[in-house]
Amino acid sequence: MTTVTLSLISHTNVGKTTLVRTLTRRDVGEVFDQAHVTEVSEAYSLVKSAGSELFMWDTPGLGDTVRLVRRLKKSDNPIGWFMHQVWDRTLDRPLWCSQEALRNVREDADGVLYIVNAAEAPQDAGYVALELEILAWIGRPTLVVLNQTGRAGHGSERLEEEWREYLDKHDIVRDVLSLDAFGRCWVQEDVLFHRVVSLFDGETKRAMVELARAWHESNHDIFLRSMELISNELASTATDREQLPAVFPSTAQKEEAMETLGKRLQAREELLWDAVIAAHGLDGKHALEAKQRIDAFVVTGEETLSPKKGAIFGSMVSGAIGGLTADIMAGGLSFGGGLLAGTILGALGGAGLSHAMRLLKTGEEPAVSWSHEFLDGLVERLILRYLAIAHFGRGRGRFEEDDAPAGWTQAVRATLTARKPHFASIWSEAEAGSSQRIGQGLNKGLTKAVASILSHAYPESTL
Ligand SMILES: Nc1nc2c(ncn2[C@@H]2O[C@H](COP(=O)(O)OP(=O)(O)OP(=O)(O)O)[C@@H](O)[C@H]2O)c(=O)[nH]1
Ligand SMILES: [Mg+2]
Hints:
Layout: E1 2-10, H1 16-24, E2 42-49, E3 52-58, H2 65-73, H3 78-84, H4 93-108, E4 111-117, H5 127-138, E5 142-147, H6 156-168, E6 173-178, H7 186-197, H8 202-239, E7 242-243, H9 251-279, H10 284-295, H11 318-330, H12 338-348, E8 357-360, E9 367-370, H13 372-390, H14 409-418, H15 420-432, H16 435-457
Parallel strand pairs: 1-3, 1-4, 4-5, 5-6
Antiparallel strand pairs: 2-3, 7-9, 8-9
Helix pairs in contact: 7-8, 8-9, 8-13, 8-16, 11-12, 12-13, 13-14, 14-16, 15-16
Bound molecules: guanosine-5'-triphosphate and magnesium ion.
């Protein structure tokens, strides 16, 4: 068995444990917004494949580096001296924790992921230069991960650039990558592991190539499963009909039929998102949170795509959702709020409720079904919601406005516009066809569209 071992190192309270949680899809360790939360180094197996296994060590954070480096410099064999010191765990906690972290790198690491808080300017994080000096002494190949990119808010990309420039001057740093554990997309994990491959040579590199491939495969399977679930839901909606009780139905009868159709859509959507969330390994409170997030997920057209940040969540818009629900009510329909209101009105794109459904006069009696225009809009909303889940990182605490958003609406819209004929022919087929038959065509079209959106957003990824 070849093992590849990565140690996560950072100043205390930057986000090592949070990153491990996002990658393992488990609530491991302790996460709080305070110094020295993690006290002992702990290894987590991330992936196994073909006789290789990737381990990631979560370590205690470095602290009081100024004192640490001053002392190290006094010695001929600084690291040796430091490791043989006996630090009091209570009285010298910052140094005790630093020693635990460095011991872990020295004894176990093939490579180091050094995490830096990109919400802070490099000149304000004086400890970074000192910590890099210590890592240089130990001498393992180091990849810097800039996290908390969502936190920096306005101008965060400029800060990221500053960090890159600053880190460029340090020889131990082989590479710099932005990855916010809260708002990362699974395709960025592939990019992370490909960068890790280039830290190594020989047998370790060969094993890491295989492990990166296995990691990609398991994420890609979840992607394909999600596309299948969404396509099945779309196929059901496109073929759904509600018969009207008379050849010349009254307005009240039409509205009742439309409401029935809407309720069925709502019920399917509930099941759909439960299944997609579960497929992403989100359970318990994370599942609830993810659901609330997509429920409140509205992206405005003005937002521009920000591939670097990888965060896409729209601002919290419960007010807007409330407004949308009121619009539906005013249109004479009482679908209930939240998810469906967002889905229906979002899909309409302001075209008005009367465009959402149409009368079909195929059989003996007329029926109502969803309009092609509505279905086009629905595809857009379903993709945006999938993207919200695909970026949902574990370890997310309370949602904060600053963790938000770069809009994806334009990207999704552009991709769908290019594929409009494909979907249009499916909607026509749906008028007579069964949902199973059109499901396949939808799955193909949707998978290609979403793969293209993700590849544009993350050009380094290999979908
Ligand atoms: N916005 C954002 N916040 C993060 C991210 N990662 C961590 N945090 C927050 O930063 C704080 C510290 O996170 P931890 O994962 O406990 O940090 P740590 O490096 O393990 O800390 P120690 O174990 O004490 O060294 C928590 O409040 C997290 O919610 C991130 O990628 N983005
Ligand atoms: Mg920790």
